[in-house]
Amino acid sequence: MNSIFDHEHPFVCTDAAVFTIRTDEPDSYRKLPEARLRILLYKRTAEPYNGRWCLPGGFLNIDEMPEDNILRMISKKSHINRCWLEQLYTFCDLKRDPRARVLSIAYLGLMSEAESKKFDDKTVWFTVILDDTGKFRFENEDLAITENDLGFDHSNIIKVALERLRSKIQYTSAVFDLLPEEFTLTQLQNVYETITEKRDQAANFRRKIKDLVIETDRSTGDKGHRPARLYTKKGDV
Amino acid sequence: MNSIFDHEHPFVCTDAAVFTIRTDEPDSYRKLPEARLRILLYKRTAEPYNGRWCLPGGFLNIDEMPEDNILRMISKKSHINRCWLEQLYTFCDLKRDPRARVLSIAYLGLMSEAESKKFDDKTVWFTVILDDTGKFRFENEDLAITENDLGFDHSNIIKVALERLRSKIQYTSAVFDLLPEEFTLTQLQNVYETITEKRDQAANFRRKIKDLVIETDRSTGDKGHRPARLYTKKGDV
DNA sequence: TGAATAGTGTCTGTGAGACAATATTAT
DNA sequence: ATAATATTGTCTCACAGACACTATTCA
After folding, report:
1. Which pLDDT tens digit goes with each residue over B59-71?
2. DSSP string over B100-119
3. In this complex, do A105 and B103 lie within 8 Å of one another by their Cβ atoms?
4. Neighbouring C-beta atoms of residue A72, cutoff 10 Å
5. What are phi and psi of B105, to 5 degrees?
């Protein structure tokens, strides 16, 4: 029987742009750590794009959900149990994979700093730097790479993911997936500002987000300045 | 060689939730027509879901872009040349198609009323009615069907599409894809209100959208009331 | 004490929403 | 004249953003 199911049809893979916040150690006992936005990349060890850096992901099994596929790929080298994932876009360009027609169901992922440190090989997290011309750079303690060092259409996927993250953070509770259970309002503000690259007055910021958080009775301490009240995320109404 | 490309892999299809605005003829020479939101459905003539109503779409060819696939499917019975399309979501449930694992790249489509009338068989456009319990009904001059009369997961796709349309209309120029080149501000407001199901004061509405439109020197006439100035969409800055 | 951060109070301008009033057409 | 729609003006309240001020900790 000449069914559609006998025909050659596109392959499907997943790709995940997973972000986390990394806080650098401050140089003085007084200062707070600076927050940087990082993304998870791995170095390919096979053709095509052998040696290039790529987003984690893989071919989708016939009985597998994309989220599970991504978690499976991410957990290969570590023991990730908490990673928020949201479908981003399905990239369909005819030539995005030189081997065959491969659609990529791309996801946006967010992970807390604690979770991100479970990865054995720390070189996989890169600080994301967007320069004035709109081009990306990726840096960490050991390496500095550019957009052109990425394989496939992954620099484009990252661009779309970052746009989504930036707009999503404005009107949802997505930030909290980048933070620990308890956090200070300054930490929260730092994450906002790191992602949006816009500054805010502390007083205004606090008013804006006050309905999203709950005050605890605990505080931070042991720094050369006033301790900060710890907050938790308010449960979704 | 035991490559991933030798394995059985998921099939890929497209589905499009295409909306248009239909204006009913008014009963009095004084009154303006009422606007209703309509969606394009077709009746399946093969298994599975034979006889059920479905969103247009089809299996994606290996060298085909999803948008082209959708236009090809929609244009089969007519000569559609203007339909705005945006990728909505990729539906991946394991059992969404009883025949095999079939992912659906779903699109949100918007079409002007004039364009929508090019379809020969007028029964394919259904007014979308969302009742108090959140269930859909679909009605036109000849037929009235419910969510349960739809095949596959298409009622879910429609739900997601309508949510997207409702939020998208708030912060983009998507409305204009539902309107003719020239329109009155009341027409524009009617489309907004039909989609959001919220009322607005005319004065406030006009202020809100004034930066999105350009006044022409033409007006409507021949009605038993004051003529309305015609406007066009302001080009994207 | 002082450097650094935490937290609160107040002013102003903008914009959304409510309300009121006027303008224009065909029958 | 009247029914119906078109269009503009004004008031108020909420809120975003700017600015100023006070509070608290450790070396």
Report:
1. 999 999 999 999 9
2. S-EEEEEEEEEE-HHHHTT-
3. yes
4. 14
5. -85, 105
Query: The tokens of A129 are what?
Result: 């730097």
Amino acid at A83: C
Q: What is the pLDDT of residue A4?
A: 73
In window 175-214 of A, residues with CB < 7 A from nucleic chain C are 184-186, 201-203, 206
Chain B residues in contact with A11 by the CB 8 A cut-off are 4-5, 9
**Nearest chain A residue to B104, by CA:** A90
- B28 contact to strand D (CB, 7 A limit): yes
**Cβ atoms < 10 Å from Cβ of B31:** 12
Task: Write out the DSSP string of B136-186.
Answer: EEEE-SS-EEEGGGB-TTHHHHHHHHHHHHHHHHHHSSGGGGGS-SEEEHH
Q: Chain A partners of B160 at a C-beta cutoff of 8 Å?
A: none
Q: Which residue has the tokens 């967007």?
A: A130
Task: Dump pLDDT digits (tens) for B24-61.
Answer: 989 899 999 999 999 999 999 999 999 999 999 999 99
Of residues B227, B187, B178, B180, the one with CA closest to residue B209: B187
Backbone φ/ψ region at B144: left (φ over 0), alpha (ψ -120 to 50), beta: beta
Note whether A14 and A22 are within 8 A (CB): no
B8 with A103: Cβ contact below 8 A: no
Cβ atoms within 10 Å, residue B116: 22
Determine the 3-state secondary structure of B43 from DSSP.
strand
Alpha-carbon distance of A57 to A96, in angstroms, equals 15
Nearest-neighbour CA in chain B from A194: distance (Å): 24
Cα angle value B55/A61/B69 (rounded, 5°): 30
Report the top-level CATH class of B8-173.
Answer: alpha beta
- Which nucleotide is nearest, taking the CA of residue A225 and each C1'? D25
Distance in Å from the first CA to the final CA of chain B: 53
| Token representation of residue A177 | 């997936």
Cβ contact A77:A120 at 8 Å:
yes
- Residue B109: what residue type? G
pTM of this prediction exceeds 0.85: yes
Asked whether residue A224's C-beta has any atom of DNA/RNA strand D within 7 A, the reply is yes
- In this complex, which of B10, B66, B99 lies closest to A12 when CB atoms are compared? B10
Rounded-to-integer distance, Cα B41 and Cα B43, Å:
7
To probe the interface with A, which of B3, B6, B7, B11 has the most A CB atoms within 10 Å?
A: B11
